[in-house]
Design a protein that fits this description.
The protein is mainly α. The protein is built from four helices and no strands. It starts with 7 loop residues before the first helix and ends with a helix.
Amino acid sequence: MHQFEKLKIRQKAMDLTEKIYMLCIEPSNEKYNLILQLKKSATSIPSSISEGSRKYSDLEFLHFLSIANGSAYELINQLNIFERVGIAKGENTKPLINELVEISNMNFSLQKSIREKLKKISNLNT
């Protein structure tokens, strides 16, 4: 099992989630359904990482990392929608999208590392 509090990727996702919440607080952005979905996607990223890190096997952790990555790209899409419909400006969404891409890259690296570890274990057992 992994200690999720120590995972750098989880901390970055938590920081991003806080920024998403701050974006949604602005009075001009009270588009309830879109804001609710944005918050759900944002909180899903660190939540999936945290939950998966405490699962019994690395295979389960990989599954939850995959879910977190899907949520990251869902959130990128939602931020693009926010910009297109005029709820948020690109100057506010672009830095968040850049952070999401960074988190996604970290996620892929972590998944790759876990897969390599599993492959080594598998080779030792054959």
